[in-house]
Amino acid sequence: MNNQDIVVYENEMKNYEMMLNEFYDQNSSNTVKLCLQKEFDKFGERDKCWVQCCYNLENSKNQYLLMFSLNIMEMIINKKWEKITFKSQETLREAIFNHIVMKHNEYPKFMISKMIKLLVDIARNDWPLRYPNFIEHIARLLLNPEQVLLGLSFLLLSSEEFISPKEDLLGKRKHELKVNFLKHIPKLFEILSEILKNAHKTSNSDEIYEAVTKVFSDMFTWLPFEKHLTPDLLQVLMPLGKKEDATAINTLTIFNEVLSKSYTQTDDKYFILSELCLYTFRLIENIISVPEIGFVSEAYLTIVTEILSVVIRKYWNFLDSHFNNGEFLELLLQYTFRHVVLDCYYQCLDIWGSIFEALSDRPECVEKYRRIFLDLVERVTHKINTFGNINDEIYDDDGQTECQIFLNKNIEIISNVANLYPAIAVPVVDNWKVYINDYITILNSPMLLENFKDSKCMFLVPSTRTLTSLSGYYEDSMKIAITKMLNDIAIQGVATTPLYQLPVALSTTKTLIQIQSEILTALSRWMHLLNNNKQFCLEQNREKLFSVLVTSLQDTSQPTQIHDACGVLLPTVTEPMLIHISEYTSLLEQLLSPFLDGSITLNHLNKKTRLSVRVTSLKFLLTCPSQEEEIKVLVLMNYLKSLAPSGLNDLKMLTDVLVNSGPYKMSTRRIIYRSVEPCLIEAVTHLKNDMQSETSLNPQMEMCERVITFLSEMYELLHDTMSPQFVQVLMQTFVDLDLMWSVSTMLTIKMLDVLSLIIKHSSKSNKEFTSVVIKLGLEKLIPLVASNCYPPTVSALFNLLYCVLMYKWRYFFPASPSLTMHSNNENNIDNSEQFTTILEVIGYSFMTNDISIFSQNLKAIEELNTKWNLYAKEYFKHYFLSKYMTVLLNVMVNKSHTILSDEISMAIYNMASVDFDYFFSKFLPDYLKQTDNIRNDQRQFLRQKRMLPVKELPTFMVNLAQLTNDIRCSKQI
Question: What does the UniProt keyword field contain (predicted)?
Answer without folding.
Answer: Cytoplasm, Nucleus, Protein transport, Transport
